[in-house]
Amino acid sequence: MKIYMHWDMEGVSGIFTREHLWYWEEGTREHIREEGRSLLIADINSAVEAALEAGADKVIVCDTHHGGGNILPDRMLADPRAVFHAVSRDENGRLMPGLDETIDGLMLMGHHARAGTGGEFLPHTWMGEWADFSINGKSVGELGIEACFAGHWNVPPIMAQGTEALCREAEDLFPGIVVAGVKHGETHDRAAGLDADSARRLTGRKVREAVEKARNKRFTPYKPGLPMTLRVRMHTAGSAEEAAKKPAVKRLDELTVEGTVERQCDIVKWILE
Question: Which H or E run includes 37?
Fold first, then answer.
């Protein structure tokens, strides 16, 4: 059994401040960034260990936060069954390196809810200027985008871990998915929740549950009907105007653009490439 863990960072155990996460912003302190990285690495290693203990033969990890670069090879779990990708794209620009039809389950870890989610901690969807992203009329966040991409290879989403709002979003989109909510938003820039050790224990239990259910084929891929109509509502007219310069993008109104694709794996290619 092969498991793919797609890691973001806003939903990682024990991280409760904006500064730990959006470290590219002016004024961020380096030791705070390092604290965030250490918490992410500890979360990943703990979850991978749980998956292997539950019977996974191989676990592939992809670090996607801000394009990757948040994990360090010499600090990752030393087990030949674990493979770590420190970037979100391979050398050919392909998303989710290592994901293909041989994967038995997708775990969306360390995630946050979509843009516009009230009361959420740092809600957003893929790009900061995207106010909303929809697939065939259904508004989705990064969970939906990533699961749709994986659906092209018939890989089902089996677990989501992160904020409580993220877990509700996952359960709405993928009925039956296993979730682990480790924190909740207090304000846009601050969260509260379980201490890191308690959160990892909860996550470990849920990882083992998800692996067992995947072994028994309890999940289905997320495959929206084709062709897919994709719409993005921008925060500003300038962003919509810039997007509409791409050949596959049609502008619908001041803030909204649309595209149509014939494969689930092209869900963002039409607007980003």
Answer: helix 30-53
